[in-house]
Amino acid sequence: MGMVGGGLTSFIGPVHRKAAGIDGEIELVSGAFSVVPGESKATGEALYLNPNRVYETYQEMFEKEAKLPASERIDFVSVVTPNHVHFGPSKMALESGFHVLVEKPIAFSLQEAKTLKKVVDKTGLILGLTHTYTGYPLVKEARNMVAAGKLGAIRKIYVEYPQGWLSTLLEKSGNAQASWRTDPKQSGMGGAIGDIGTHAANLAEYITGLKITEVCAMLNTVVKGRHLDDDTSMLIRFENGASGILMATQVAAGEENNLNIRIYGEKGGLEWRQMEPNTLVVKWLGRPMEIIRAGQSYLSDDAKAFTRTPAGHPEGYLEAFANIYRAFTKAVRDYKPGKKINYTKYDFPDVEDGVRGMNFVQTVVKSANSSKKWTPLK
Amino acid sequence: MGMVGGGLTSFIGPVHRKAAGIDGEIELVSGAFSVVPGESKATGEALYLNPNRVYETYQEMFEKEAKLPASERIDFVSVVTPNHVHFGPSKMALESGFHVLVEKPIAFSLQEAKTLKKVVDKTGLILGLTHTYTGYPLVKEARNMVAAGKLGAIRKIYVEYPQGWLSTLLEKSGNAQASWRTDPKQSGMGGAIGDIGTHAANLAEYITGLKITEVCAMLNTVVKGRHLDDDTSMLIRFENGASGILMATQVAAGEENNLNIRIYGEKGGLEWRQMEPNTLVVKWLGRPMEIIRAGQSYLSDDAKAFTRTPAGHPEGYLEAFANIYRAFTKAVRDYKPGKKINYTKYDFPDVEDGVRGMNFVQTVVKSANSSKKWTPLK
Amino acid sequence: MGMVGGGLTSFIGPVHRKAAGIDGEIELVSGAFSVVPGESKATGEALYLNPNRVYETYQEMFEKEAKLPASERIDFVSVVTPNHVHFGPSKMALESGFHVLVEKPIAFSLQEAKTLKKVVDKTGLILGLTHTYTGYPLVKEARNMVAAGKLGAIRKIYVEYPQGWLSTLLEKSGNAQASWRTDPKQSGMGGAIGDIGTHAANLAEYITGLKITEVCAMLNTVVKGRHLDDDTSMLIRFENGASGILMATQVAAGEENNLNIRIYGEKGGLEWRQMEPNTLVVKWLGRPMEIIRAGQSYLSDDAKAFTRTPAGHPEGYLEAFANIYRAFTKAVRDYKPGKKINYTKYDFPDVEDGVRGMNFVQTVVKSANSSKKWTPLK
Amino acid sequence: MGMVGGGLTSFIGPVHRKAAGIDGEIELVSGAFSVVPGESKATGEALYLNPNRVYETYQEMFEKEAKLPASERIDFVSVVTPNHVHFGPSKMALESGFHVLVEKPIAFSLQEAKTLKKVVDKTGLILGLTHTYTGYPLVKEARNMVAAGKLGAIRKIYVEYPQGWLSTLLEKSGNAQASWRTDPKQSGMGGAIGDIGTHAANLAEYITGLKITEVCAMLNTVVKGRHLDDDTSMLIRFENGASGILMATQVAAGEENNLNIRIYGEKGGLEWRQMEPNTLVVKWLGRPMEIIRAGQSYLSDDAKAFTRTPAGHPEGYLEAFANIYRAFTKAVRDYKPGKKINYTKYDFPDVEDGVRGMNFVQTVVKSANSSKKWTPLK
């Protein structure tokens, strides 16, 4: 594994490295960690890497790694840079023969995303996307329950992603995370909607298996002086006639990372909260509510395959992240040139999800700027 | 106290009677409990009332009671009939010289509500409205916290009222509650929006002290064969620039009566849930979350005045209901003909709230039928 | 209904009156509310009672009430005085022909309790005891589940009653409640053990239907200067071989009234917490946990008979208290002189529970003073 | 790093490996994974190890590793075998010059534990013990709060460790984990008390900084046919006069791994639950309860040093485990022959905790067999 981005001040870089390290199946051997001169080398040293395989640019990295013997060179690269540097390295990596695991959103614009999709299709290589939250075992259990019809036809879907960390103008106080995420030049056309709204939409579509077909959105920039939206709420409609609400905000002061979803069908509803991810609440019409717990013997094989500890030994965010790596690298190991990968079998977010996410952002921005109630999402 | 409606099969009648009975300050002495022949008498008997003061119609009741000596006749009447019979008895009671406590919504239409307002203004008598949920002590505490600026300027308001009891076509199976609530002739132009959506709107405006100025609403009839909406979601905007979401549904299968509200300001947020009403969660930016509990010595006098038991001895729905009675009857006792009542001092929902609620329902229905995104709520 | 005790500064008097008032079935008409000169009259006035039936002493009350016509005089009396004045009025009431509902503990000593039992047996009248917590609907549901064998044979029972209100020497600061409860002359030989430990023991025996047969107890006076225990922990054994722990403390600073119980059998366990009394958690071996909720249609008739509101409209402490009144007065209404009452049918704590409680206190004190591990509880 | 035990069917072996892998600071390079012929090799292969460094016995491993150049050989060894094979490899590892991280309990008997202590003292090498639960950041925060006197003098300590997985005679159904843990020849004199009771005692002493001085214990073998205790409850006293309860059971059907602790001082109490480890509840006398959350900026440096993700991105059991590795390996890196290690600085359980744990087990068994109430724990 190689890495683009993830230098010493990065938030998500270490998360990727820890997640990749948990199962002992992946070794980081190469990286172009930063465009700040010297920082890539420094990061490589801190990570005990062979300095020969630590590069100043991703271009150099892909060129040189591609020339190494197959048994030695990296199999895939993780792209963990800010949004505006997702496309470049991902495209070049694929074109240099490396599989790619890229942070979400997949690109800076829908256009870039669609281009990447073409490159994936052309090269036949694997592109994974870290919509981390679908990596949780009970999210998979929830999806299985819906697919098995346990809730009956789905009627209502409420998905929320409240955070509070951007309640003040943090980007003006030297916070690196806040700076790039609120900068349209680095983040793209969406602030909160791109950063966390896409996770919410992805989670809703993943669990229900239903596509959002229309949105009626409000985008706000609540904190004065900010250059991108930090708050969104929208009414949503799904392909089967279900409807609901999607909310994502970064100005809910006091909230941490409170992604949650509630889904109601004819027979009952389910509720999952990322901050207590090992519990899935199922409410039934006319019989007692059930609490489903990670690690239990009664879970589906899909949930079990992504669990590392017995019930009552909590797993968390890093393990969910590691599950994306587990599924992606399983596909990478099974990859055979010229043979199409069956994404369903491996269960990780891919280039389709990436295009979908960019499309979602663009449509929400369009809806927010429109005085018409509904805007279709194709 | 007299009562109109609340016969033997009524849900809300017994709730009113129990709530009125808790504090030992109010005695039910008269009633016109039902239009079903004989049922009013039967109800009176079951309640140990003097049969001479149990009437077949509210008209008869007000006529005869008005002729009794002042020391003997009822002081006020509770109107607990279905929506389409709120206006008639309320108006006649006022015009007969009785104060009125009426179930919400105050009337069948905005027009009726406005007429009632005029009657209240003209007679100078007191009209209270059982928006029960504002009777909870911690709702009052929340309002105090917001008013005191503890959260800073309010930015986001999310209020939800999910129920699941109308997930099936219950009205076709002989359920009396379901029947009239889903019948436009008895319920009015709104189903879920009138029955529970108004509670949600009232709660949000009560706690924040802010008026909703615009709505962007979706109204759905989810269960086939139903004649009124059973589900609504809307984006909302408030007078100070805050925005949020209001959701009310009766088809969230497995939900009981899960009214809840979250309010975020610049410095923190608060969260209250009706199903665990003795707990108020306060989340702060940069310091530990606090759990405020009913019955504690640190609460405001407003909250304390509406609490009957020490901390840890839970109070519930009947006590909240009793608080509406407590505040209303306090005003009734203080009433002096010709002197205007200071509603703020007593803190119970009044005719203004009633008009506001009907206006809200009408505006939401208008918005739902419009292809424009926003509809003003005046 | 008449009342002994419950003057203006009483905590439990108003609780009794509110509980008795909820269902509109009981009318307080008489009282000897206080031994403080004038306070009884003042209380009667505040309660709108006929002054002729407000007495300075309970002796006067029983003498005069007994002479009233049957249709007019009180049916029963509630004794809500401090512990050392439970025996006198209860005995005299019974001997004057009145049924009695007495606060727990039933008496000051085991000897008194046994004497009362004899008076009950001799008069054939009804004595109820306000072990309030068994009045909660879900406590009854829990008892039904255990009796029906749903958990299999019971193995472990953990019951706790932590409070924190006596964490300081409150009795020295003029707090009336603290004063008599920590005074051996008014409270008896037990402090926390008598005040709340008996509730815990009663709850455990009520739900499981099993008697405690042995205790191994530690009694502590944690706060310096206090004259009675304020804290206890004990190992306990039950008649069927089950074992467990009983804890009761009034110095768990920050706790409110956190009575809770967990019971485990061969197949699963259940957990109930008084502070969220409308929820019963059932944990199963090998299948999802269930959350049972008050007011739901799937509950047993026993639980339903003691519920006043639909699911999601929370009930609390006053309603539980009202359930003791409801069951007790049902028996009082059915009472026929000379005919034995079937206590099981009515389901309220009675004189047997009272004797049992005093025996428990005496045994725990004995165990605490012993260097032997186990002391039998007969 | 090398490993003794942890073959393909091991529960705790993979946990160690995953925990060691998270931070990318530790590399497993050698192992004697099993005494089952061939399994050690097979495990090594599955872990991509160099087969030359995978051994059939730990004796062979220590001999050969000791002869490798310092830059190449293992720095330390993790001993993850069943209890009866903790002593042998730990002792030999130390005597061969390797630091040791050993699973708890440190040994099969108190005698072995004391011998190990002597070897540690003599060699000056580092021995760590995986009392995992003290690795959680909020456990460290709790300890800091107590040490800083925020709760005032500690009065009551309640620690519980309920599990339900041994509710049936699982050891007879071929479950490898159940088999050795219920076998006195592999597990030692204690069943539940050794397996999980020691964790509870360690946690209580760790957070409070107080030693248990006396126990009054009941040990039960609840499931018929089992050869060791599966359930214990005890009253405990601490050196400062505080008292409390320790409960540990493996027959609480439906419980997962519900270790939890509540500690009350003069001013308030705190509560932590392993199954939701990122939340620390603090209850205060006379002011609102506080919820302290992992990853927040207001935490102590001690807690922050052991956190990997921002607030709201939950951490779990593997991260707590990784924290033991992090602290232990920090000490290993700082180790200089002849220089004494300052254990307080690194904050991981060591040989003293190991001796303490064995002493605790032995004392509890003694107490359980005694008819005297209290048995001192020295």
TrEMBL record, chains A, B, C, D:
InterPro entries: Gfo/Idh/MocA-like_OxRdtase_N, Gfo/Idh/MocA_oxidoreduct, GFO_IDH_MocA-like_dom, NAD(P)-bd_dom_sf. It comes from the Bacteria. SUPFAM superfamilies: Glyceraldehyde-3-phosphate dehydrogenase-like, C-terminal domain, NAD(P)-binding Rossmann-fold domains. Residues 2-130 form the Gfo/Idh/MocA-like oxidoreductase N-terminal domain. One of its GO terms (molecular function) is nucleotide binding. Residues 140-271 form the GFO/IDH/MocA-like oxidoreductase domain. This is Predicted dehydrogenase. It comes from Ohtaekwangia koreensis.
